[in-house]
Amino acid sequence: IASEGQVFVKFGHIVAKHCPDQKCSTELLRAVEQTHTISRQLSIVARVKAVTAESKSSSELLVSNAQNLIRAVLHVLKAAEAACIKGLRQPPPDPEEEEVAAFCMRWRKSLLWHRAKESLNSDRDELGLRKTGARAEPSLSAMMQEQSPRTLRYPKIIKGHKLTDSRL
Fold it and tell me: Which of 11, 69, 90, 134 is 20 to 30 A away from residue 96, measured at CA?
């Protein structure tokens, strides 16, 4: 899980690098730095636990750090969503950066399509308030969970675990 956290760090750096909005870019870089720190901390805790005797407290510390990392990754994804809504600059001909930009643009297009469809098929009551039960807007974290590893090399997803899974 710690190494997967570094994948999201790299993803966040690429999105921040190509975001024209300075405020969104700064927020994303803060989230990336926090994720990087927690990922490194989890890696260290896991290595120490591997060479020491099994104890309940060390296992709890490991689980707690994994949960913190998942929360930090979700923060990166939310900040990346904000940056992607503003739009991204055209990346240089680097395949990794192009893939990240294409992934973000697919999500943005999906979001805009969802919003347009919602405005046409308005589920509103007689007061003009949106009825509950409407489909949620697409999110980057949901899109990453739907991708198969063969169709999206980068960013990798944590296989078998939802990003909101509380068991970690």
Answer: 69
